[in-house]
Specification:
mainly alpha
Amino acid sequence: MQYKSQAVAKPYFIAAIGLFLGQILFGLIMGLQYIIGDFLFPAIPFNVARMVHTNLLIVWLLFGFMGAAYYLVPEESERELHSPKLAMLMFWVFLVAGALTVIGYLTVPYADLARMTGNDLLQTMGREFLEQPLPTKVGIVLVALVFLFNISMTVLKGRKTSISLVMLAGLWGLAIFFLFSFYNPSNLVKDKFYWWWVVHLWVEGVWELILGAMLAFVLIKVTGVDREVIEKWLYVIIAMSLISGIIGTGHHYYWIGAPEYWQWWGSVFSALEPIPFFMMTVFAFNMVNRRRRDHPNRAATLWALGTGVMAFLGAGVWGFLHTLAPVNYYTHGTQITAAHGHMAFYGAYAMVVLTMISYTMPIMRGRAANSNKAQVVEMWAFWLMTVSMVFITLFLTAAGILQVWLQRVATAPMSFMATQDQLVIFYWLRLGSGVIFLIGLLLYIMSFFIKGESVDTAR
């Protein structure tokens, strides 16, 4: 490491991987509950398993983003982190708050949890992805403010680069848009309208800035390509992301009672959203092809290339499949949405965090890269996780197409539950793919413990 305070990132990354493992385990529980409806009932009802699954996704990615910022900002700013002690304090506050929240979900009925945590004072609970109790939401805001203060002071006092400024803009946007989670109007149309200001403007807005900054940072390190070239690509990608993503929020307004013009605005600008992800794929491969050195961390390079490809497929192609209003009329809320969500989150955000961990963890442990044996295991993990996610997406897409036909298009439409009975084969296949994904994740974790002669120099 160039700066001692970069070591602060290590516990954040360890926590992120631990929470990722928890997310996958609860995903498998849900997968079984799709097939065996009373599996683990009443201990873990489906709504609780789903809540834990999605909340762990958000929290582990936030840990990953924070760890990435604590590593790359000192290096980009060419100075030590403003306050490593403050960073570690916030780590424990965030981890304990997250753990207590999950325990609350699992042990207390949700209505009782809402009553116990002050939801009557300020109603913020009960919305998908934003189920967190009021104290947890307040805690997230406090952790985010302290984190942003720490990062911002580091950037302001040091060198300013495109990567650090884009990362900072994305992180500030993440915190600002989360404030809309406290606004829960009684009017359902307004509720959904502003709910998307958190969910959509995170994943199809400011998170893309964070993704771009992290990917650019790793590509500079592993390819040796001039910073000026990578930064030009970064600016173009984030400009297209924001132009298409912000107005593209309208594709969520089609059927919630919003004005009719959103069907045009949402369709047109959402159709542009695959462009920045395609540019990101071209960017990653172009930089690797133009590399000036062969970095010893071949696994991190593979993860970086995979991020571009899978982000384009999941967020771009599968997003486009059902983003136009005439198509979305039939597919809205079906398993096609789930297919898009799984591959998009994995490709765009899970993979970039894993890329950052793959590149930085060996350095924080005193070597440029893990041993060749460890990297082979990690690359097996990459292929198992990535290919299984492709199959999860394909099986959910097939289930969604059949669901649309049986439930919404057929001359004698079937009920929701009767339709679900016809999709069981796809749910079994999805579950099998999920088990393979878990094996891949376990291999990824195991690779960091495999000993061998470390690789310390680039060729």
